[in-house]
Amino acid sequence: MGSDPHQLSLLQGFGTPKNAPGTSPAAATNPVAQVLIETSLPHLDRIFDYVVPEALDAEAVPGARVKARFGGQEMSGFITRRTSNAPEGVKLAPLAKVVSAQPVLTDELLRLATAVAERYAGNVSDVLRAAIPARVAKVDKEFAARPEQPVAPDATSADGAGYPEPSAGAAEAYAGYEGAGDFLAQLAAGAAPRAVLASHKSYGRASWAAQVAHAVASVRQSGRGAVVVVPDAKDLASLEAELQQVLGADQYVRLTAEDGPTPRYRNYLRLLHGEVTVAVGTRSAAYAPVQDLGLVALWDDGDDLLLEQRSPYQHAREVLLLRSAQSGCAALFAGVSRSGEVERLVGSGWASALTPSRPFLRKATPRILNTADSFQQERDPMLRHARLPHAAWRAAQEGLERGPVLVQVARTGFSPALSCQDCRTPARCTDCNGPLAQSGRTATPACRWCGRLATNYACPECGSHRLRASVAGALRTAEELGRAFPGATVVSSSGDHIKSVVESKNALVVATPGAEPVAPEGYAAALLLDGNAMLSRESLRTPEDVLRKWFRAASLVKPSSEGGLVVVTADQEAVVAPLVRWDPAGAAAREMQLRRELQLPPAVRIAALTGKASGIEAFMADFELGGSLRSVGPVELPSREVQERPGESSEHRLLLFFSYQDGPKVTAALRHRKAALAAKRVPDPVQVRCDGIDLL
DNA sequence: GTGCGAGTATGA
DNA sequence: CATACTCGCACC
């Protein structure tokens, strides 16, 4: 070909009146669309330019979802900008079509997704996949027909004459919390305070949900919007109940996968167009396109549901932290317990702690009793051989006269119940008739009720000594306990049968952690039964996680002034102590102190490289360690394959440890390396995952 | 993934 | 010397 090919194509692209047959003229102004292609290939995760044909000019707005020919195939992407100048030295392909003219990728969202991708050494388009709901054609039509009405949705609409002063409701929700009034006032005044809220209740007027709802109401007084993220549907229901009280049902939208594509997309567009300015939902709601954002809030950040399950495995807390930094808005992290990450925010002074005062807490929280406590055991020598620990038994019995009683049991699989290998008769404790279970890693089965070890168990039916694991979820436990407490209505909540609310006064509610229904008046008592089994899990995170589950259950129980009592049965007194004292902040501070000394997360950041040993070696070949960056491994992972194929090398994992300060540098380098290797298509690709809490 | 150009093998 | 084919890599 004789002449310069770029020259030729540019002339064509810019629409000289007479074009080659088949090419349509380009748009008159800003004929170039910068498009972010949706791909999970790291080296292609960037912006490419296309010519906008005149026919697509009107629809091809920044933020629109489009299709474009890329490489061999037509791929989808989003227009990030329209510009006038084409890049030098490339010939531009035309945009194939505009899928939807709704500008779903806003500037702000692109900036956020980019920051998240950088933080996690991942792809921008992977982040966007979680952030932008699937398009629904009929919803597009609704919005196309609707006259553009960027209503100022501010303090005028629902609140009528403005928000009813530092409302009575807000005062009640935050009673006992020093500094709360100031925090709310700052929100209302348009400032951007950042706080870590130590909620103590999960029901009633002073619940975390009420507290968060009032924070949202305050920020709305300043005319700004808010985003609230919660781990699951049950928490969302609690929050929505309060928001309806405080704001009104039409003043917010929910964004959650559970609603299905149509309402989710509709709500997304309503936010996008400023029809509503408050978004609540599960983890993907962190990206909600709220206009004029004033507050991001997160409830219970320790819940692992907030961790995205797809690459780059981002956590809603980090997303919201990045977002609040970018938009300079207020931030609120609420929880009954406190995660290590949030403790860092308090420790560094980034956020202030909103904590109820000691004397207030003493009255407002239930009494906590540890039956495994040596002091208790001395006073109650019957304990080891009683049926349920005596104290637990009595707490339940007496509690049932005053209200519902919660029994928290470990999830199925944590401590599978045992039955006879030969005749399938359920294995029972010879002392108390409770179910036997394999708890943790100890070989000897133990009674789940009294904890007694069943050494040398013999089946009462056939005399066999062999035991097999059988599934005993909350359902089975409920059955067992129902027999133990005749007269009580036994309710079970776990797995896919989660109940949000329990109304019955004399219900014995058996629930797994995270599935506990709310009792509107509070539980009279709670028994936290499987502490030892839960604590036996081998993970760096275990104590924090178990404590979190206990605190959440305990926050559902009436205060001690109304007879509320929590009985916990666990041997590790160091873990139980903060619960007994109701001191989540102290527990988090101590745990973080330990982590800092050991240089373990979340005091430092980590990245895990997973893949074939050869792949990891290639990845690390000219990767510079230094500064705070150190590497551990690689170690071979226990293979999940039933049979390792000969010649096929197994998966390995290398861990990188680095400081938060060096984080951006390290993740940028990881990302760069990933892209370079992917472009070269070196064999044995390596998966990079940052700050996976379940890795250690 | 796929199309394309460079480079190389192959046959007339 | 012309044509067939593979390989690598850019992809707007």
Automatic annotation (TrEMBL):
- Report if keyword Nucleotide-binding is assigned: yes
Every copy of the Primosomal protein N' 3' DNA-binding domain together lies at: 35-133
Q: What does the entry comment about cofactor binding?
A: Binds 2 zinc ions per subunit.
What family does the entry list? Belongs to the helicase family. PriA subfamily.
State its role.
Initiates the restart of stalled replication forks, which reloads the replicative helicase on sites other than the origin of replication. Recognizes and binds to abandoned replication forks and remodels them to uncover a helicase loading site. Promotes assembly of the primosome at these replication forks.
Its subunit composition reads: Component of the replication restart primosome.
Q: What is this protein called?
A: Probable replication restart protein PriA
Q: Which organism is it from?
A: Arthrobacter sulfonylureivorans
What's the gene? priA
